[in-house]
Amino acid sequence: MKIICEIYRSPKEEGMYLYVKKEEGLSKVPDELLKMFGKPQQAMVLLLTPGKKLAYASVEKVAENLEEKGFYLQMPPRGDRDPDAERVRALNSKLSGR
């Protein structure tokens, strides 16, 4: 299995990404999902191969969704966030005045 995958980031939700096959683009993504997702911002192009490691999903699950649905939606991680990273985010928010 080798899939050239295009990954888009959501402007509405930090950590939400949409994976699609590069040759198909966003053509198989439902309109309702695109409305919820916001205007997709291209993040990267990636070659999915067996054994490749992804941060929040298995390559097998992503590939299966790409074959069956034409897309894979990666939701932001909830509850299992790194406490050190959360402290840094909170500090950065306070410093930037957000």
Sum this structure up briefly.
With 98 residues, the protein is of the alpha+beta class. It is built from 3 helices and 4 strands; from the N terminus they run ββαβαβα.
How would you characterize the overall build of this protein?
This protein has helices at 31-37, 59-68, 83-96, and strands spanning 3-9, 17-21, 41-48, 72-74. By secondary structure, it is α+β, with helices and mostly antiparallel strands. Strands 3-1-2-4 form a 4-stranded antiparallel β-sheet, with helices on one face. The longest helix has 14 residues, at 83-96. The protein starts with a strand and ends with a helix. The relative contact order is 0.22.
Low-confidence parts lasting 5 or more residues at pLDDT below 50?
A: none
Count of DSSP-assigned helices: 3
Name the strands of the widest sheet in spatial order.
3-1-2-4
User: Helix share of residues?
Assistant: 25-40%
Order of helices and strands: EEHEHEH
Give the termini separation: 44 Å
Strand content: 15-25%
Strand tally, please?
4
Mean pLDDT: 87
Structural class based on helices, strands and sheet pairing: alpha+beta
Shape: globular
Major sheet details: 4 strands, antiparallel
Radius of gyration: 15 Å
